[in-house]
Amino acid sequence: MVNGEDDQPWGEGVPQKVDIVCMIPSKVYGPFEVELWNAGQDCMPNATAYIEIKNPVCANAPPKEGSGYIDPVTGAMKPEPELVAERGGKVNCVTVPGVGTLGDGCTMKSHIRMWVTDDPTLRPDDSIPYPDTRFLMDNKILNLVNEETRLFDLQPCNARTIYLYFLLQQPSEESFGLNYFPNPGQAGYDEMEYLKFNDWPSWGLLTHTITFDMEFDLVLWDP
Questions:
Q1: Which domain holds residue 47?
Q2: In this predicted model, what pLDDT tens digit does every residue of 110-135 receive, in sequence order?
Q3: FRET pair for 128, CA 20 to 30 Å: which of 69, 106, 115, 222?
C-alpha cells in the first residue's frame, strides 16, 4: 500500500503526491513524503519494494496573452527568452547562435533529476555528484521510465517512509561548446554577467511541462 491506499494496478491508485509549479533550474524541490507498507501477512523473508516512472506526458505551455513571438520553424508562439535560446539572438547585447529545442518532444525528462531516500536528514543539492550512492535512487527521469528501480526489502506488516526530491538541471553554455560569458579566472570575466547570463540555454526549457505516474511494486521472491 502507498500512503495507506492501494496502488495501481490492483487498487484504484493514490492521489497526486507531487505538484511543482514554475520549476526553477538549480533549485531542489522536496521532500515529498511517501509511505510504503507491506500489507501482506505471509512471512516470506524476501519482499522487495521497487519504484517505476510511467506515462510521461509533455506539453509546451503558451506564453501569456499579449506576449511571445512566432517560432520561424514551427510557427508556435513562444516567449522571447525561450526563442532566443533555441534559435539564437541577443543575450545581454551578445549575439548567440541558439542551441536548438530543449523541451520539445519530451526531452524535458532528460533534464529532471530525481532522488529517493529513506533518511530524513539526507537532503540533496545541485552540486552533489551524479549519481550519488548515498541515496536509494539518484537518476534522470529519462532513465527511470518503464524501468523498475529497487529501493529496499520490505517485510509483512512493516512500513517505511521515503522522501522524494526533484531538480531541473540548468544547461550551461559550456555544455554546448560555447563560451560567450567567460568563466571565473578567464579573461573578460565579469561576476554579475556570468551569474545572470552564463546559463542562458536554460531559457530553452521555459514554459515546458511534464507529468508522469509513479508506480510502486512489491515483489515476493521464493526463498
A1: 28-217
A2: 899 999 999 999 999 888 888 999 99
A3: 106
